[in-house]
Each structure stands twice: as structure tokens, then as C-alpha cells.
Amino acid sequence: MMNFATWMRRALAVSGLVLIAPAAQADILALKDGRVIEGPKMTQDEDFVVISYKNGDVKVPHALVRSVISETAGDYVPRTDEEKEKYKEGLAPYQDKWIPIAKRKKLIEKDTAKELEQITEDRAHDEWGTRRKEESKNFRWEYTVPEHVKDAFVSRCESYYEIFTKDWKVKRDKRKEKMKMNFFRDVKEFYQVGGAGPGTLAYFMFLGDYDLCLFYDQTSMEFTEMVLYHELSHYLQKLLNEDFKVPHWPGEGVAEYYGGALWDAKKKKMDIGLMQEGRLAEVKGDIESGTRLKLKDVVTIQAYTDYSWGWTLVHFFMSDSKLKKGFQKYLKGLANDKNVKRTMGSFNLWFVSPEESLRYLMECLDIKDEQELAALEQEWYAYIDTELVLEGVSGLEKGAVQAMNQGMRLRAKRLFKEALDAGSESANIHYRYAGMIRYEDRSQALELMRKAVELDPVTPIYWYSLGDLLEDSDEDEGQRIKKLAIEMDPRVERQKIDFSKLGEQE
Given 161, 191, 210, 279, which is the most exposed site by the fewest CB atoms within 10 A? Predict the structure, then answer.
């Protein structure tokens, strides 16, 4: 067998890239979420890719793995009884087929060289100064994420754009630049280069060109999608009239409505207006505590509840053809109807007062007086109670993270627990909740952190936090695991967050 240095040189020769190739002695693990681990020796068994560090092994489930680049990448050792029988016939598995062993080895070596080329290319552009740029049909992209991640989000954004513009009968001014998507590879680069403050998930720049700045959360593609869909709606709302400032409640309510989107990667299709279970969990919690917001208050009082209660009101309007027609007339008319009273405000944008917004909403919905408004309010309440139903764990997860980000500690704890009781398989949820209860229930916190590591064994902060918890009962083992985490990423000590002290005691 050729040595690894020779193999790597040949692979690189195939790719045509040599100058910025990874070190010859390093094995490389590429994950489906875009992360790349390089360095220690890697071996494979039936269930895992095993990364061997000085302070212990890290077992990565095959379900998380896109490819492994190593000296033995093309070698095949049968593991199951079926594989052993096929091996006797000179066959080996490849992409759900049985093919000759020699042919499999050549194909895998070819795949490996191609994967190495892509990894090398991605690394050449993973700093903002060397970022890649391209245009899709309706957007300009500047990005440091891996190419396959960018491609996935281009498909999503273009589908989202087509649905929104068709639904609202608006279009982009082709004389102006397409909106630019600044897509950062991780939160660190987002803060350092994008200039975002701590806790910021994404932000828009509406001065001059429209720029959306966001980062790729490698541990949760779903979270990145949620943030993207919400913020993208704000841009598309600007197509109603770019000189108009959409009031807070319909702006955020519509953003959450269209943010409840689900992308089917196989069918290349997107569904809009699905259940925002995180927001619904907040609303249901308010109702259980005896709070129901007035429809008038949602429309006239700018508040955080515009994201939750505002979403339910938009969902209610969009669910009925007559109400949808009236609501769309309202939102488009706020920006363009000459009979709406508008005033010039900051950034040379037109505004409407809360009172005018309510008046015009009633006009567009053909609501003549307070009595009819109260009747509509009761219909809305009934819709929340009977039609908006918590259906799955994902919404509870989102709701918990949203509550934590908003400083709502008690609500966050309740939603974290409900998500876990409902069967959450999110490592991030286990990690966050463990951090919140570490001083209240160390035994449960330790169990949760072990599960976080099991679900996502390549995130160093999960290992470090596990070691931190273990030190109280087993100092030597805790220290070993913390050293393992530092091996994985020397910066991990600076990433530690004490979740137990976050948020307000509401």
C-alpha cells in the first residue's frame, strides 16, 4: 500500500490543487453540516468514525458524516453477515449497490479526491477577505460557508421569494441592485466582521443597498433557516413600498407567518405558513396564566408580543379568503393608499400612527364599530384555541431558545423541559438546559450533558461543559475530558457560558 503522503499527493494532483492542501499527515472528516475536522488518526467501525485524540476517542455516528479522507479511505472490511457473504463473492457496498471490490476502491478514491478538492477550495475562501461572490436569480451572495451549504440556501431563498412575491403581487425593481446576502461561516466571524452585537442573530442594512447579514449555525441548520426566513420577509415587505416603514405588529407577524416555512430538499418545494410552534407555545403559556391580548392592543401597542400574538393574528387573517383579501389590502394600502394619513419620520421613511393603523384595518376588513371588532376578536380567540395546535417538538425547541434569548428565564426552563419530555434529539437543547439547571440538579444536568455529547460529539464546548460538571464528583475524569475538549479546539475555554445566570427571574 502506498504511504499516506504519496496518496495525498496523487489525490491533490487529480484535484489540481496543491498549494493550500491540508498537511500530509492529517486525516480529514467532512460532516454533512459543513464542519471539517482535521488532524488525529481516524478509523471506522460499523457504527462510528472514531477520532483518536491523546486524551480519548471521539465517536462520530455515520449519520453525521459526509466523507472521510484518510490513507485507508478505499479499503473495505465487511462487518455484517450479509457483507461477509457478499465479500466471498468479490462484492462490496457502494451507494446502495453491490459492486466488485476493486471497482469500489477506485470509485471511492475518485470520490475522495473530489471531496478533497472541494474542501481545499472551501478553505481558500473561509475568511471574509477571500469570500466568494455570485448571483442567483434574485439575490447577490457573498459568503464564506462551504459551497454545498450556500447552494442549499440559494434554493430555499429563491423558492421563498417566488412564493411571497406571487402571494402579495409585488416585484423587485429590476433597475436596482438585487438584495445582497452576507452569509458568514460561523457566529464568531459574524460578530467580528459583520459588527453585530452579542445576542444578535441577523440584521438588515436598509441604507443604500439592501444587505442581509447572517451566520450559519453549524449545529442547527433549522435554526439558521428560521432566522433567514424571518429576516427575508422584512426585505420582501419593502417591495410594497421601499419608502414606507411597516408598523411593528404586521411587520413581525407577517415575518413569523412566512418564517413558518418548510423546505423539501427532494421535491425542491417550500410550504409556507406552517405552525410556528415556538411562538404558539408562548401564546398558549400566556393563555394558561390567564392572559389574552386584545386585538386592538396588538394593532396599536408595539411590543415583543407582536412576534407571538401578532403571528397568531396574521395566521388567522391568512387562513380565510375574505379576511386574507382584507388584510392584504390593509398592509399594501398602509404603504400606498392616498387616503391613509402618513407622516415623514426618521431615515426619510413614511410612518402611520397606531390609531390610523387600527382605523384602516377596520375599514379594510369592513368592521364598522367596536361591537363588530369585539366579535372578530372572539373569532380570533376561537381560532387560537381550536386551529392552532402544538404538533411537535421542534416548536418547543425554538420557543425555548427564543425565550432564553429574550431573557425570559422561567418560560425558557419550562419550554426546555417540555421539549425534552416530548423527545427532543437536539444536542443544543440538552446543552442549554443542562447549563440552566446545573446548580439546581447536578445529576440531571450531568445526564443531559452526556446526551448532548452523544448527539453531537464534535462540538468541543459540549465536552468541556461535561468535564466541568464531572470535576465535582470525579476530578481526574473531568480534567481529562476538559483536556480532550481543548485538544479539539484550544479556544473552547473562552466559549464557556454560565446559562444558570442568564435571564430575568420573571
Answer: 191
Residue 506 placed within a domain: no
Give how many domains the chain has, as a whole number: 4
- Phi and psi (nearest 5°) for 169? 55, 50
Under 8 Å between Cβ of 30 and 65: yes
User: Which strands, in side-by-side order, build the sheet including 36-39?
Assistant: 36-39, 27-31, 65-69
DSSP codes, 384-411: HHHT-----HHHHHHHHHHHHHTTBHHH
For residue range 213-246, list pLDDT tens digits in order: 999 987 777 778 888 999 999 989 989 998 999 9
pTM given for the model: 0.75
Cα separation, 102 vs 90, whole angstroms: 9
Burial class (CB in 10 A: 0-12, 13-18, 19+), 213: buried
Residue of 68, 67, 66 whose CA lies nearest to 33 = 66
Helix (H) or strand (E) holding 449: helix 442-455
CATH code, domain carrying 73? 2.30.30.100
Quick: pLDDT tens for 408-438. Answer: 788 888 889 988 998 999 999 999 999 999 9
